[in-house]
Amino acid sequence: MKILFVSNDPSLFVAESASRVRMRTYAAAIGELHILSSAGKDAKEEKDGNLFLHPIHSLKLFRVSILTHRARVLIKKYDIEIVSAQDPFEHGLAAFRATRGTSAKLHVQVHTDFLSPWFVKSGSWHALRISLLNRYRRKIADRVLPEADGIRVVSERVKASLVARYGTRIPDPAVIPVVVDPIAPVPAQLPSHAFTFALIAVGRLEPEKRTQDILTALKLVIVRYPMVGLFIVGAGRERRRLEKIVHSLSLGEHVIFLGERPDARALMGSAHAFIQASAYEGYGRTLVEAALARVPIITTNVGIVGEVLKDSEEVLSVPVADPIALSRCIIELVEDGAIRQQLPMRAETVVRTHLAAVGDLPTSIAADLRRLISI
Question: How buried is residue 49: exposed, middle or buried, by Cβ count under 10 Å (0-12/13-18/19+)?
């Protein structure tokens, strides 16, 4: 097969990056894989075996039109059979426009739960711009998805939301999760601290992660248990605002920001509990990683929660935007050693069963694309 991915991952142009390594495995399963992606100014056209990388350099304002033009050129030059967009938004629109009038099939990947009501809620003035952008993106998806020949989603939750909104106007979405290495790293020691119970939150510091809810919950918890603390691993636009919240809540002695860490998975294994408060997730890779790290999990009801990880059986799950519920879960783990032991044992078991059922992801993705050619 000859497939073109329309993507946005500059790290693909770094020879030994995790993204490049992953795309090599996809290319081996597919046959000939081309990737069109935004990239740094020094990135050039590159061939890596049967993986072909095509960079674009543009401002966001012109990205869709440039992606569309370049994708159309590549379709004709390489006889591309399928164009797969990494999302149903800007990249989906570019892929849709590029395939019109050609024999190439349109395939769309949906990695986020964009039909969650939280996708378009601002939550604060700080997140208003993203909320307005997401409303526009949802409208783009409404235009693109009914035109797709094939759709891949990463969870049953996302599939159910698409079917509820679009019904038979879209092809039946294929559920193919994301790649997670089932081999958990050896736990790495957390930086020096005085916490007797250490929470860890891992992820991008962006509005949709609602890390402020964790901070509010922590403020409630330390009234009863003053030696509980939180490590925050990750970087993003919310860092400065979160630091201000920590100061305003007088949590300076209870919160440690670690920034982006390559050993994030290893650090999970040394914490007493993993916690996340995301407004929405398509899948929830860090939930799987936390389960493999054998650490108790507190999470909002997003992604694969309910599908793979069930509340009170493998995780403690709470509604979105409910810091009081988060605080109760933290206190439950602090006070109940049996739950601290049982939850991670069961979570690891079901996650390993889940990953085994997923099987070889590159092969599954290639099979899903190959099916489109015969339609």
Answer: exposed
